[in-house]
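lol ok so funny story. i was supposed to be doing the assay writeup but got distracted and ended up predicting the structure for this chain instead. priorities right. anyway since i did it might as well share w the group, maybe its usefull for someone
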Amino acid sequence: MKITGFRPLIVTKEPEQVIRTFEALGFVKRHTKANIEEGAYAAVAMKDANGNRLNVARADVPQDMTGIAINVDNFQEAYDFFIGKGFIDPRGKENVTDTGSSRATMLFAPSGFAVAVSEHIKERN
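and the output, tada:
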């Protein structure tokens, strides 16, 4: 498994506030993915002039969460690696999000921190 991206992630009910805050710090939206799981989730990738990256995701969470977004070249291998280290998938393996252009899920470490693992799929055969 190769890590192709690694950055902070903020999950919130109100992403607009978070995005405005980071725009004031010089970050710009680079990519938006909407209508994930029929609109239940959305994600914005941001970047500043120094190359620092941040992901902001909209989800119905009881309070804001921070974690790590990790892009990989092989989702299944990464998923199995983290599960083997004791991470938990609270939604279960059968509920991995597949948008056609990516596969992703959020896993939680035994100590509680979150890791959002995703593979961007360039082509489908």
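The chain has two helices and eight strands. The two ends are 20 Å apart (CA to CA).
back to the writeup now i swear
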